[in-house]
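Ligand-bound model needed. adenosine monophosphate.
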Amino acid sequence: MPTKILPSAKAAKNYPLLIKQIFASAGRFEPDNKISYRGEAEFSYDEFRQRVQQLANTLKAAGVEAGDTVAVMDWDSHRYLECYFAIPMLGAVLHHVNIRLSPEQIAYTMNHAEDKLVLAHDDFIPLVQQIQDHLTTVDGYIRLTDTSNSETVGEIDFIGEYEALLRTQEPICEFPDFDENSIATTFYTTGTTGNPKGVYFSHRQLVLHTMNMATTLGSYEGLPLLRSDSVYMPITPMFHVHAWGVPYVAVMLNCTQIYPGRYEPDLLVRLIRDHKVTVSHCVPTILQMLLACETGQKTRLDNWKILIGGSALPQGLAQAAIDKGADIYSAYGMSETCPLLTVTHLNKEQRSLPMAQQLKYRTLTGVPVNFVDLTISEPDGSLAVHDGRAVGEITVQAPWLTQGYFKEDQKQEELWQGGRLHTGDVASIHENGFVEIKDRIKDVIKTGGEWLSSIELENLISQHPDVAAVAVVGVPDEKWGERPFAMVVPKQPELTQATLQQHLQQYVESGHLSKWAIPDEIQMVDDIPKTSVGKINKKEIRAQLSH
Ligand code: AMP
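Prediction:
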Protein backbone atom coordinates (compact mmCIF):
# COMPACT_ATOMS: atom_id res chain seq x y z
CA MET A 1 0.00 0.00 0.00
CA PRO A 2 1.38 3.43 -0.84
CA THR A 3 1.61 5.94 2.02
CA LYS A 4 -0.92 8.76 2.14
CA ILE A 5 0.36 12.14 1.01
CA LEU A 6 -2.08 15.02 1.36
CA PRO A 7 -2.07 17.82 -1.19
CA SER A 8 -0.51 21.08 0.04
CA ALA A 9 -2.03 24.50 -0.07
CA LYS A 10 -1.20 26.24 -3.32
CA ALA A 11 0.67 28.98 -1.50
CA ALA A 12 2.54 26.55 0.79
CA LYS A 13 6.29 26.62 0.34
CA ASN A 14 8.89 24.07 1.30
CA TYR A 15 11.28 25.33 3.95
CA PRO A 16 14.77 24.16 3.01
CA LEU A 17 17.24 23.29 5.77
CA LEU A 18 20.02 25.77 5.10
CA ILE A 19 23.02 26.92 7.12
CA LYS A 20 21.53 30.40 7.13
CA GLN A 21 18.93 29.10 9.59
CA ILE A 22 21.69 28.22 12.07
CA PHE A 23 23.15 31.68 11.46
CA ALA A 24 19.78 33.27 12.22
CA SER A 25 20.08 32.01 15.82
CA ALA A 26 23.50 33.63 16.40
CA GLY A 27 23.17 35.90 19.43
CA ARG A 28 19.35 35.63 19.60
CA PHE A 29 19.38 34.07 23.06
CA GLU A 30 22.59 35.28 24.69
CA PRO A 31 23.60 38.50 22.94
CA ASP A 32 26.28 39.28 25.52
CA ASN A 33 28.37 36.18 24.90
CA LYS A 34 31.54 36.73 22.90
CA ILE A 35 33.67 35.02 20.27
CA SER A 36 37.37 35.53 20.83
CA TYR A 37 40.61 34.81 19.03
CA ARG A 38 43.65 33.67 21.05
CA GLY A 39 42.73 36.13 23.81
CA GLU A 40 43.83 38.91 21.41
CA ALA A 41 40.57 39.99 19.78
CA GLU A 42 36.96 39.69 20.90
CA PHE A 43 33.68 40.06 19.00
CA SER A 44 30.09 40.24 20.16
CA TYR A 45 27.51 38.09 18.39
CA ASP A 46 26.22 41.30 16.82
CA GLU A 47 29.65 41.98 15.35
CA PHE A 48 29.93 38.35 14.26
CA ARG A 49 26.66 38.63 12.32
CA GLN A 50 27.79 41.85 10.68
CA ARG A 51 31.22 40.49 9.81
CA VAL A 52 29.75 37.37 8.18
CA GLN A 53 27.62 39.59 5.96
CA GLN A 54 30.56 41.85 5.18
CA LEU A 55 32.55 38.77 4.26
CA ALA A 56 29.76 37.53 2.00
CA ASN A 57 29.71 40.91 0.24
CA THR A 58 33.50 40.77 -0.05
CA LEU A 59 33.29 37.35 -1.67
CA LYS A 60 30.59 38.51 -4.07
CA ALA A 61 32.73 41.51 -5.01
CA ALA A 62 35.58 39.08 -5.70
CA GLY A 63 33.33 37.29 -8.18
CA VAL A 64 32.21 34.32 -6.08
CA GLU A 65 28.90 32.88 -7.25
CA ALA A 66 26.71 29.97 -6.19
CA GLY A 67 28.40 26.71 -7.15
CA ASP A 68 31.95 28.11 -6.93
CA THR A 69 34.41 26.58 -4.49
CA VAL A 70 36.30 28.80 -2.06
CA ALA A 71 39.36 27.45 -0.25
CA VAL A 72 40.40 28.46 3.25
CA MET A 73 43.92 28.00 4.66
CA ASP A 74 43.88 29.21 8.23
CA TRP A 75 44.45 28.05 11.78
CA ASP A 76 41.42 27.95 14.10
CA SER A 77 40.14 31.52 14.08
CA HIS A 78 37.09 33.79 14.24
CA ARG A 79 37.76 34.35 10.51
CA TYR A 80 37.43 30.63 9.82
CA LEU A 81 34.14 30.62 11.75
CA GLU A 82 32.92 33.48 9.56
CA CYS A 83 33.85 31.43 6.49
CA TYR A 84 31.90 28.44 7.89
CA PHE A 85 28.82 30.58 7.35
CA ALA A 86 29.43 33.21 4.64
CA ILE A 87 30.72 30.84 1.95
CA PRO A 88 27.98 28.20 2.03
CA MET A 89 25.24 30.79 2.65
CA LEU A 90 26.08 32.26 -0.78
CA GLY A 91 25.53 28.82 -2.29
CA ALA A 92 29.28 28.38 -2.74
CA VAL A 93 31.28 25.42 -1.42
CA LEU A 94 33.76 25.85 1.43
CA HIS A 95 36.90 23.79 0.83
CA HIS A 96 38.63 23.23 4.17
CA VAL A 97 42.20 22.81 2.93
CA ASN A 98 44.17 20.33 5.00
CA ILE A 99 47.24 22.50 5.43
CA ARG A 100 49.20 19.67 7.03
CA LEU A 101 49.41 17.65 3.82
CA SER A 102 52.48 17.87 1.58
CA PRO A 103 52.56 20.81 -0.90
CA GLU A 104 51.98 18.37 -3.80
CA GLN A 105 48.96 16.85 -2.07
CA ILE A 106 47.56 20.28 -1.22
CA ALA A 107 47.89 21.38 -4.85
CA TYR A 108 46.23 18.13 -5.92
CA THR A 109 43.26 18.67 -3.58
CA MET A 110 42.83 22.31 -4.66
CA ASN A 111 42.82 21.42 -8.35
CA HIS A 112 40.59 18.43 -7.78
CA ALA A 113 38.10 20.50 -5.79
CA GLU A 114 38.26 23.19 -8.51
CA ASP A 115 38.95 26.01 -6.03
CA LYS A 116 38.28 29.45 -7.46
CA LEU A 117 39.25 31.79 -4.65
CA VAL A 118 41.72 31.16 -1.80
CA LEU A 119 41.79 32.79 1.62
CA ALA A 120 45.28 32.21 3.02
CA HIS A 121 46.86 33.10 6.36
CA ASP A 122 50.35 34.64 6.38
CA ASP A 123 51.81 31.36 7.67
CA PHE A 124 50.79 29.66 4.41
CA ILE A 125 52.08 32.31 2.03
CA PRO A 126 55.37 30.42 1.42
CA LEU A 127 53.28 27.34 0.62
CA VAL A 128 51.00 29.26 -1.75
CA GLN A 129 54.04 30.77 -3.46
CA GLN A 130 55.41 27.29 -3.93
CA ILE A 131 52.27 25.81 -5.48
CA GLN A 132 50.48 28.73 -7.14
CA ASP A 133 51.86 28.01 -10.62
CA HIS A 134 50.35 24.53 -10.38
CA LEU A 135 46.89 25.70 -9.31
CA THR A 136 44.82 25.47 -12.46
CA THR A 137 41.45 26.84 -11.35
CA VAL A 138 42.31 29.55 -8.80
CA ASP A 139 41.84 33.12 -9.97
CA GLY A 140 42.18 35.13 -6.76
CA TYR A 141 43.69 35.24 -3.29
CA ILE A 142 42.69 37.06 -0.09
CA ARG A 143 45.24 37.51 2.66
CA LEU A 144 44.48 36.66 6.30
CA THR A 145 46.83 38.18 8.82
CA ASP A 146 47.26 38.52 12.57
CA THR A 147 49.45 41.59 12.17
CA SER A 148 48.34 45.19 11.77
CA ASN A 149 50.19 45.38 8.48
CA SER A 150 47.50 45.35 5.81
CA GLU A 151 49.97 45.75 2.93
CA THR A 152 50.04 42.68 0.73
CA VAL A 153 53.22 40.66 0.87
CA GLY A 154 55.22 38.22 -1.23
CA GLU A 155 54.77 37.43 -4.89
CA ILE A 156 51.08 36.71 -4.62
CA ASP A 157 48.71 39.08 -6.31
CA PHE A 158 46.21 39.45 -3.45
CA ILE A 159 42.79 40.99 -3.99
CA GLY A 160 43.36 42.47 -0.56
CA GLU A 161 43.63 41.81 3.15
CA TYR A 162 40.61 40.30 4.91
CA GLU A 163 39.97 43.03 7.51
CA ALA A 164 40.58 45.85 5.05
CA LEU A 165 38.21 44.25 2.54
CA LEU A 166 35.51 43.67 5.17
CA ARG A 167 35.66 47.35 6.15
CA THR A 168 34.73 48.38 2.61
CA GLN A 169 31.51 46.33 2.65
CA GLU A 170 27.99 46.86 4.00
CA PRO A 171 27.10 44.66 7.00
CA ILE A 172 23.87 43.58 5.30
CA CYS A 173 23.59 40.73 2.82
CA GLU A 174 20.46 38.95 1.61
CA PHE A 175 21.24 35.24 1.60
CA PRO A 176 19.17 33.40 -1.01
CA ASP A 177 17.09 30.27 -0.55
CA PHE A 178 18.17 27.28 -2.62
CA ASP A 179 17.94 23.50 -2.64
CA GLU A 180 18.89 22.12 0.78
CA ASN A 181 20.81 19.35 -0.96
CA SER A 182 23.31 21.86 -2.36
CA ILE A 183 26.87 21.10 -1.35
CA ALA A 184 28.09 23.35 1.48
CA THR A 185 31.51 21.95 2.36
CA THR A 186 34.23 19.67 1.08
CA PHE A 187 37.58 18.41 2.36
CA TYR A 188 40.02 15.61 1.65
CA THR A 189 40.83 12.47 3.54
CA THR A 190 44.04 10.54 3.06
CA GLY A 191 43.98 6.78 2.76
CA THR A 192 46.79 4.26 2.94
CA THR A 193 47.40 4.51 -0.79
CA GLY A 194 46.59 6.81 -3.67
CA ASN A 195 45.57 10.44 -3.74
CA PRO A 196 43.48 12.12 -1.03
CA LYS A 197 39.74 11.62 -1.58
CA GLY A 198 37.21 14.45 -1.44
CA VAL A 199 34.14 14.08 0.78
CA TYR A 200 31.25 16.54 0.65
CA PHE A 201 28.31 17.59 2.79
CA SER A 202 25.10 19.41 1.96
CA HIS A 203 23.29 22.16 3.84
CA ARG A 204 20.60 19.71 4.86
CA GLN A 205 23.19 17.29 6.24
CA LEU A 206 25.01 19.97 8.22
CA VAL A 207 21.79 21.39 9.65
CA LEU A 208 20.60 17.94 10.73
CA HIS A 209 24.04 17.12 12.16
CA THR A 210 24.01 20.40 14.09
CA MET A 211 20.53 19.92 15.49
CA ASN A 212 21.30 16.37 16.47
CA MET A 213 24.63 17.28 18.06
CA ALA A 214 22.96 20.03 20.10
CA THR A 215 20.59 17.45 21.55
CA THR A 216 23.31 14.85 21.98
CA LEU A 217 25.74 17.13 23.83
CA GLY A 218 23.19 19.28 25.62
CA SER A 219 20.14 17.34 26.69
CA TYR A 220 21.22 14.17 28.42
CA GLU A 221 22.44 13.95 32.01
CA GLY A 222 24.87 11.30 30.85
CA LEU A 223 26.70 13.72 28.54
CA PRO A 224 26.43 17.28 29.86
CA LEU A 225 28.85 19.02 27.51
CA LEU A 226 27.42 21.97 25.66
CA ARG A 227 24.81 24.53 26.70
CA SER A 228 24.42 28.25 26.08
CA ASP A 229 26.54 29.16 29.11
CA SER A 230 29.41 26.87 28.04
CA VAL A 231 32.77 28.32 27.11
CA TYR A 232 33.85 26.37 24.05
CA MET A 233 37.30 26.05 22.52
CA PRO A 234 37.95 23.59 19.68
CA ILE A 235 41.25 21.72 19.66
CA THR A 236 40.41 19.66 16.59
CA PRO A 237 41.50 21.71 13.58
CA MET A 238 38.72 23.59 11.83
CA PHE A 239 39.97 22.15 8.53
CA HIS A 240 39.26 18.63 9.80
CA VAL A 241 35.63 17.43 9.54
CA HIS A 242 34.17 20.85 10.49
CA ALA A 243 36.06 20.70 13.83
CA TRP A 244 33.67 17.77 14.40
CA GLY A 245 30.74 20.08 13.65
CA VAL A 246 30.82 21.70 17.08
CA PRO A 247 31.36 25.35 15.94
CA TYR A 248 27.97 25.24 14.16
CA VAL A 249 26.38 24.00 17.39
CA ALA A 250 28.19 26.59 19.52
CA VAL A 251 26.87 29.37 17.27
CA MET A 252 23.34 27.99 17.36
CA LEU A 253 23.49 27.79 21.17
CA ASN A 254 25.18 31.24 21.45
CA CYS A 255 28.07 29.85 23.52
CA THR A 256 31.10 31.91 24.44
CA GLN A 257 33.76 30.71 22.02
CA ILE A 258 37.55 30.86 22.02
CA TYR A 259 39.45 30.16 18.80
CA PRO A 260 43.08 29.36 19.61
CA GLY A 261 44.85 29.96 16.30
CA ARG A 262 47.84 27.71 15.71
CA TYR A 263 48.01 24.95 18.32
CA GLU A 264 50.76 25.63 20.86
CA PRO A 265 50.29 23.41 23.92
CA ASP A 266 51.27 26.02 26.54
CA LEU A 267 49.04 28.66 24.95
CA LEU A 268 46.13 26.21 24.75
CA VAL A 269 46.37 25.44 28.46
CA ARG A 270 46.66 29.16 29.29
CA LEU A 271 43.53 29.87 27.23
CA ILE A 272 41.65 27.09 29.03
CA ARG A 273 42.77 28.51 32.37
CA ASP A 274 42.33 32.24 31.71
CA HIS A 275 39.07 32.06 29.75
CA LYS A 276 37.61 29.36 32.00
CA VAL A 277 36.95 27.11 29.02
CA THR A 278 34.38 24.47 29.99
CA VAL A 279 34.43 22.26 26.91
CA SER A 280 36.86 21.20 24.18
CA HIS A 281 37.44 18.24 21.92
CA CYS A 282 40.64 16.75 20.56
CA VAL A 283 42.48 13.59 19.56
CA PRO A 284 44.32 11.66 22.32
CA THR A 285 47.79 12.75 21.19
CA ILE A 286 46.87 16.43 21.63
CA LEU A 287 45.47 15.74 25.10
CA GLN A 288 48.73 14.04 25.96
CA MET A 289 50.68 17.10 24.74
CA LEU A 290 48.51 19.43 26.82
CA LEU A 291 49.07 17.41 29.98
CA ALA A 292 52.81 17.10 29.35
CA CYS A 293 53.66 20.73 28.49
CA GLU A 294 55.10 23.03 31.14
CA THR A 295 51.90 24.96 31.81
CA GLY A 296 49.86 21.75 31.62
CA GLN A 297 51.91 20.17 34.39
CA LYS A 298 51.19 23.12 36.67
CA THR A 299 47.53 23.69 35.82
CA ARG A 300 44.41 22.07 37.24
CA LEU A 301 41.63 21.38 34.73
CA ASP A 302 38.76 21.12 37.16
CA ASN A 303 35.97 22.71 35.12
CA TRP A 304 37.06 21.37 31.78
CA LYS A 305 35.06 18.72 29.94
CA ILE A 306 36.96 17.08 27.15
CA LEU A 307 35.53 14.96 24.35
CA ILE A 308 38.14 12.66 22.85
CA GLY A 309 37.81 11.07 19.43
CA GLY A 310 39.67 10.39 16.24
CA SER A 311 41.59 7.51 17.85
CA ALA A 312 41.00 5.17 20.76
CA LEU A 313 41.42 6.80 24.16
CA PRO A 314 43.96 4.81 26.18
CA GLN A 315 42.86 4.30 29.79
CA GLY A 316 46.20 5.55 31.14
CA LEU A 317 45.73 8.88 29.37
CA ALA A 318 42.11 9.17 30.49
CA GLN A 319 43.22 8.58 34.08
CA ALA A 320 45.92 11.27 33.78
CA ALA A 321 43.28 13.79 32.61
CA ILE A 322 40.91 12.77 35.40
CA ASP A 323 43.71 13.20 37.94
CA LYS A 324 43.95 16.82 36.77
CA GLY A 325 40.23 17.29 37.41
CA ALA A 326 39.03 17.00 33.79
CA ASP A 327 35.75 15.28 32.93
CA ILE A 328 36.45 12.99 29.99
CA TYR A 329 34.25 11.42 27.30
CA SER A 330 34.85 9.63 23.98
CA ALA A 331 33.31 9.93 20.55
CA TYR A 332 33.73 8.15 17.25
CA GLY A 333 33.32 9.26 13.69
CA MET A 334 35.27 9.78 10.50
CA SER A 335 35.76 12.29 7.70
CA GLU A 336 33.15 10.47 5.66
CA THR A 337 30.51 10.80 8.39
CA CYS A 338 30.41 14.57 9.06
CA PRO A 339 31.53 13.14 11.68
CA LEU A 340 29.37 12.16 14.67
CA LEU A 341 28.42 8.47 14.98
CA THR A 342 28.81 7.43 18.62
CA VAL A 343 29.53 9.13 21.91
CA THR A 344 29.97 8.16 25.56
CA HIS A 345 26.67 8.25 27.37
CA LEU A 346 26.69 7.23 31.02
CA ASN A 347 23.32 6.12 32.31
CA LYS A 348 22.23 6.62 35.94
CA GLU A 349 23.78 3.41 37.13
CA GLN A 350 27.10 4.02 35.35
CA ARG A 351 27.27 7.60 36.65
CA SER A 352 26.94 6.40 40.21
CA LEU A 353 29.97 4.07 39.96
CA PRO A 354 33.33 5.12 41.43
CA MET A 355 35.49 6.86 38.80
CA ALA A 356 37.85 3.87 38.51
CA GLN A 357 34.92 1.79 37.27
CA GLN A 358 33.48 4.56 35.10
CA LEU A 359 36.80 4.70 33.27
CA LYS A 360 36.06 1.63 31.18
CA TYR A 361 32.80 3.18 29.91
CA ARG A 362 34.41 6.55 29.28
CA THR A 363 37.15 4.98 27.16
CA LEU A 364 34.93 2.74 25.06
CA THR A 365 33.54 4.53 22.04
CA GLY A 366 30.13 5.10 23.50
CA VAL A 367 26.75 4.37 22.00
CA PRO A 368 25.35 5.36 18.59
CA VAL A 369 23.79 8.81 18.68
CA ASN A 370 20.18 9.43 17.63
CA PHE A 371 19.44 8.84 13.95
CA VAL A 372 22.59 6.75 13.45
CA ASP A 373 21.94 3.16 12.45
CA LEU A 374 25.19 1.35 13.28
CA THR A 375 25.79 -2.37 12.92
CA ILE A 376 28.76 -4.72 12.89
CA SER A 377 28.84 -7.32 10.18
CA GLU A 378 30.85 -10.40 9.38
CA PRO A 379 32.72 -10.59 6.05
CA ASP A 380 29.73 -12.50 4.54
CA GLY A 381 27.46 -9.56 5.44
CA SER A 382 25.63 -11.32 8.31
CA LEU A 383 25.21 -9.32 11.52
CA ALA A 384 27.54 -10.09 14.43
CA VAL A 385 25.93 -10.56 17.86
CA HIS A 386 26.17 -7.88 20.52
CA ASP A 387 27.99 -9.79 23.25
CA GLY A 388 31.15 -7.69 23.57
CA ARG A 389 33.22 -10.47 21.98
CA ALA A 390 32.04 -11.03 18.41
CA VAL A 391 33.70 -8.60 16.06
CA GLY A 392 32.74 -7.25 12.68
CA GLU A 393 33.13 -4.26 10.41
CA ILE A 394 31.11 -1.21 11.39
CA THR A 395 28.71 -0.14 8.68
CA VAL A 396 26.40 2.83 9.13
CA GLN A 397 23.45 4.74 7.80
CA ALA A 398 22.63 8.25 8.97
CA PRO A 399 21.27 11.47 7.48
CA TRP A 400 24.73 13.13 7.34
CA LEU A 401 27.08 10.69 5.56
CA THR A 402 29.05 11.74 2.49
CA GLN A 403 27.20 10.33 -0.49
CA GLY A 404 30.44 9.52 -2.27
CA TYR A 405 33.98 10.63 -3.08
CA PHE A 406 34.18 13.57 -5.46
CA LYS A 407 35.04 12.34 -8.98
CA GLU A 408 36.07 8.87 -7.69
CA ASP A 409 33.39 6.53 -9.02
CA GLN A 410 34.99 3.25 -8.07
CA LYS A 411 36.06 4.24 -4.57
CA GLN A 412 32.64 5.61 -3.75
CA GLU A 413 30.96 2.37 -4.83
CA GLU A 414 33.30 0.49 -2.47
CA LEU A 415 32.47 2.92 0.35
CA TRP A 416 28.74 2.42 -0.14
CA GLN A 417 28.72 -1.28 -0.98
CA GLY A 418 25.27 -2.77 -0.31
CA GLY A 419 23.71 0.61 0.53
CA ARG A 420 25.55 1.16 3.81
CA LEU A 421 28.68 3.17 4.45
CA HIS A 422 31.62 0.90 5.22
CA THR A 423 33.89 2.42 7.86
CA GLY A 424 36.82 0.00 7.63
CA ASP A 425 36.75 -0.22 11.45
CA VAL A 426 36.47 -3.49 13.33
CA ALA A 427 34.45 -3.42 16.54
CA SER A 428 32.41 -5.39 18.99
CA ILE A 429 29.21 -4.17 20.59
CA HIS A 430 28.55 -4.90 24.25
CA GLU A 431 25.18 -6.04 25.57
CA ASN A 432 24.63 -2.55 27.02
CA GLY A 433 25.04 -1.05 23.54
CA PHE A 434 28.56 0.34 24.01
CA VAL A 435 30.67 0.09 20.87
CA GLU A 436 34.27 -1.00 21.33
CA ILE A 437 36.50 -0.26 18.35
CA LYS A 438 39.12 -2.95 18.14
CA ASP A 439 41.11 -1.59 15.25
CA ARG A 440 41.17 -0.29 11.72
CA ILE A 441 40.90 -3.37 9.50
CA LYS A 442 44.33 -2.50 8.12
CA ASP A 443 45.92 -2.11 11.59
CA VAL A 444 44.82 -5.45 13.05
CA ILE A 445 47.87 -7.61 13.86
CA LYS A 446 47.69 -11.26 12.83
CA THR A 447 50.23 -13.26 14.77
CA GLY A 448 50.53 -17.05 14.72
CA GLY A 449 46.97 -17.34 13.42
CA GLU A 450 45.67 -15.18 16.28
CA TRP A 451 44.04 -11.84 15.85
CA LEU A 452 45.43 -9.04 18.00
CA SER A 453 44.06 -5.56 18.44
CA SER A 454 46.77 -2.89 18.35
CA ILE A 455 44.41 -0.58 20.25
CA GLU A 456 43.92 -3.09 23.07
CA LEU A 457 47.66 -3.52 23.45
CA GLU A 458 48.21 0.26 23.45
CA ASN A 459 45.57 0.55 26.13
CA LEU A 460 47.30 -1.95 28.42
CA ILE A 461 50.77 -0.49 27.88
CA SER A 462 49.39 3.02 28.56
CA GLN A 463 48.36 1.89 32.03
CA HIS A 464 51.96 1.66 33.18
CA PRO A 465 52.52 4.86 35.20
CA ASP A 466 55.77 5.73 33.40
CA VAL A 467 54.26 5.67 29.90
CA ALA A 468 53.35 9.05 28.38
CA ALA A 469 52.33 7.78 24.93
CA VAL A 470 52.38 4.52 23.01
CA ALA A 471 51.78 3.18 19.50
CA VAL A 472 51.60 -0.45 18.44
CA VAL A 473 51.86 -1.79 14.88
CA GLY A 474 52.31 -5.25 13.35
CA VAL A 475 55.62 -5.96 11.64
CA PRO A 476 56.10 -8.81 9.17
CA ASP A 477 57.61 -11.94 10.68
CA GLU A 478 58.65 -15.03 8.76
CA LYS A 479 57.55 -17.47 11.40
CA TRP A 480 54.43 -15.83 12.87
CA GLY A 481 53.16 -13.83 9.92
CA GLU A 482 53.26 -10.65 12.00
CA ARG A 483 54.54 -9.65 15.44
CA PRO A 484 53.49 -6.64 17.50
CA PHE A 485 55.99 -3.82 17.81
CA ALA A 486 55.55 -0.99 20.34
CA MET A 487 56.89 2.55 20.35
CA VAL A 488 56.76 4.24 23.75
CA VAL A 489 57.38 7.81 24.90
CA PRO A 490 58.52 7.31 28.53
CA LYS A 491 57.75 9.73 31.37
CA GLN A 492 60.90 8.52 33.17
CA PRO A 493 64.15 7.91 31.26
CA GLU A 494 64.75 4.75 33.34
CA LEU A 495 61.77 2.94 31.80
CA THR A 496 62.92 -0.22 29.99
CA GLN A 497 61.51 -2.74 27.57
CA ALA A 498 61.80 -5.47 30.20
CA THR A 499 59.72 -3.46 32.70
CA LEU A 500 56.94 -3.05 30.17
CA GLN A 501 57.07 -6.69 29.13
CA GLN A 502 56.71 -7.58 32.80
CA HIS A 503 53.82 -5.13 33.13
CA LEU A 504 52.05 -6.90 30.24
CA GLN A 505 52.76 -10.30 31.77
CA GLN A 506 50.19 -9.57 34.52
CA TYR A 507 47.45 -9.30 31.86
CA VAL A 508 48.58 -12.59 30.36
CA GLU A 509 48.32 -14.19 33.80
CA SER A 510 44.86 -12.76 34.43
CA GLY A 511 43.71 -14.07 31.03
CA HIS A 512 43.22 -10.62 29.43
CA LEU A 513 45.98 -11.05 26.90
CA SER A 514 47.43 -13.89 24.92
CA LYS A 515 51.10 -14.54 25.65
CA TRP A 516 51.80 -13.96 21.95
CA ALA A 517 50.66 -10.39 22.35
CA ILE A 518 53.68 -9.25 24.34
CA PRO A 519 55.88 -7.36 21.87
CA ASP A 520 59.42 -8.70 21.51
CA GLU A 521 60.55 -5.19 20.78
CA ILE A 522 59.50 -2.02 22.59
CA GLN A 523 61.35 1.03 21.39
CA MET A 524 61.72 4.10 23.62
CA VAL A 525 61.36 7.30 21.58
CA ASP A 526 61.05 11.04 22.18
CA ASP A 527 58.06 11.38 19.92
CA ILE A 528 55.64 9.23 17.94
CA PRO A 529 55.00 10.09 14.25
CA LYS A 530 51.69 11.90 13.80
CA THR A 531 49.29 12.33 10.88
CA SER A 532 48.20 15.67 9.44
CA VAL A 533 45.52 15.90 12.13
CA GLY A 534 47.72 14.82 15.03
CA LYS A 535 46.77 11.15 15.28
CA ILE A 536 49.33 8.36 15.62
CA ASN A 537 50.64 7.74 12.12
CA LYS A 538 50.85 3.95 11.88
CA LYS A 539 51.54 4.06 8.15
CA GLU A 540 54.66 6.17 8.84
CA ILE A 541 55.79 3.90 11.72
CA ARG A 542 55.48 0.83 9.50
CA ALA A 543 57.40 2.63 6.73
CA GLN A 544 60.20 3.59 9.17
CA LEU A 545 60.45 0.00 10.37
CA SER A 546 60.66 -1.44 6.89
CA HIS A 547 63.86 0.54 6.15
P1 AMP B 1 39.44 10.49 10.02
O1 AMP B 1 38.63 10.29 8.82
O2 AMP B 1 40.83 10.95 9.76
O3 AMP B 1 38.74 11.35 11.01
O4 AMP B 1 39.64 9.07 10.72
C1 AMP B 1 38.54 8.28 11.08
C2 AMP B 1 39.03 7.04 11.74
O5 AMP B 1 39.59 7.33 13.02
C3 AMP B 1 37.93 6.06 12.03
O6 AMP B 1 37.59 5.30 10.89
C4 AMP B 1 38.55 5.23 13.14
O7 AMP B 1 39.44 4.25 12.63
C5 AMP B 1 39.37 6.24 13.89
N1 AMP B 1 38.62 6.70 15.08
C6 AMP B 1 37.86 7.79 15.19
N2 AMP B 1 37.37 7.89 16.43
C7 AMP B 1 37.81 6.82 17.13
C8 AMP B 1 37.65 6.34 18.47
N3 AMP B 1 36.95 7.00 19.36
N4 AMP B 1 38.26 5.18 18.80
C9 AMP B 1 39.00 4.49 17.90
N5 AMP B 1 39.20 4.90 16.64
C10 AMP B 1 38.61 6.05 16.26
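The radius of gyration is 24 Å.
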